[in-house]
Amino acid sequence: MSKLPVISGREIIKALTKIGFTVVGRKGSHVRLKRRRGEEVLIVVVPIHSELARGTLRSILKQANLTVDDLLRLL
User: Fold this and answer.
1) With respect to CATH, is domain 9-74 assigned 3.30.920.30?
2) What is the pLDDT of residue 1?
3) What are the boundaries of each domain within the chain?
4) CA end-to-end span of the chain
């Protein structure tokens, strides 16, 4: 398993939009992204921070069904 990168909220949003997520809402400093694949609907909430905490980034990856290696390929 690769090491988690230190990235911003905007960078993770850009990476998620590459794989089909679209921005569906924003409230304050949090952005909601959504992706549909057949019956499956994934919703991810991303805070717009200059650096995401490791736990927050792991949670985002889990919500999006991605691994660290998947994220590194998207960046």
Assistant:
1) yes
2) 60
3) 9-74
4) 16
